[in-house]
Amino acid sequence: MQEAFVRTTINEAGIATITFFHPQSNSMPGSQLAALAAEIEKAGNNPSAKVIVLRSEGEKAFCAGASFDELIAIKDRETGLKFFSGFAHVINAMRKAPKFILARVQGKAVGGGVGIASAADYTFAVKSASVKLSELAVGIGPFVVGPAVERKVGTSAFSQLTINATEWQSADWAREKGLYADVFETSEAMDAAIEALANKLATSNPEAMQMLKGIMWEGTTHWDNLLLARAGMSGTLVLSDFTVNAINTFKQK
Questions:
Q1: What pLDDT digit, counting tens, does each position of 173-215 carry?
Q2: Which residue in 139, 18, 116 sits closest to 68, CA to CA?
Q3: Which of 17, 10, 50, 48 is nearest to 203 (CA)?
């Protein structure tokens, strides 16, 4: 079985491609989240990188969210806070990177995966890339990723995803709500569109793009503290008997 990884490549055009993989449907254990946040920050600070493309390996799942194995293993609030802070660090790294981030969503996105897709500056997807915020179904809530998702789709659509936690919403729905910028029939068509836009951005004025990104993310400087506070909420709830039983039941399905 292929081992989990996070890796970055930068081509001659200045396109930095960050790829992550985990054999369990690209779920994200704490070490994976830390590595992903570090790679995003590094690419953002690398003068050779003009634009960032964020993608995962595989065909069926872009990201299945939090690692259930790690969730079940959490026994105290400090461990829970540290785990859920992983998604906070990834989203904040994406927010603060001084370069546009293009996300490639080639499969379903769940929980934290929806948060990552939402935190990108421009997100491409295929028809099969449906989305779901399943947190409430396992006794917690999308507290950490919530600000990124709500910023992208609005309060009404975010509430719909949060409350109807067991139902998938289609890629077309996500495009209508603004989460996805473009939806394609095939991954080949999506990749061609990503390459075209990334190459255009790689030749654009980097100062102008950095200024534009700053404007697009105005009003989010408090997220450094907000997302960590939200991580504490999840870290507390994951210890409850209700959540422990819900996660075990969900994992056995």
A1: 999 999 999 999 999 999 999 999 999 999 999 999 999 999 9
A2: 139
A3: 50
159: how many CB neighbours lie within 10 A of its CB? 12
Backbone angles phi, psi at 139, to 5 degrees: 90, 5
Torsion of CA 114, 116, 119, 122, to 10 degrees: -90
How far is 22 from 232, CA to CA, in rounded Å? 25
d(C-alpha 28, C-alpha 247), whole Å:
16
What does 63-117 look like in DSSP terms, one character per residue? E--B-HHHHHH--SHHHHHHHHHHHHHHHHHHHH-SS-EEEEE-SEEETHHHHHH
Domains of the chain, residue spans = 5-188
3-state secondary structure at position 43: helix
* pLDDT tens, residue by residue, 75-121: 998 999 999 999 999 999 999 999 999 999 999 999 999 999 999 99
Distance CA 79, CA 133 (A): 22
How is domain 5-188 classified at the CATH fold level? 2-enoyl-CoA Hydratase; Chain A, domain 1 (3.90.226)
**Residue 251, SS3 per DSSP:** helix
Question: CB 216: neighbour CB atoms within 10 A?
Answer: 12
Q: Work out the widest C-alpha separation in the chain, in whole angstroms.
A: 54
H-type alpha helices, the chain: 30-45, 68-73, 77-96, 112-119, 146-153, 155-163, 171-177, 187-202, 206-216, 223-237, 241-251
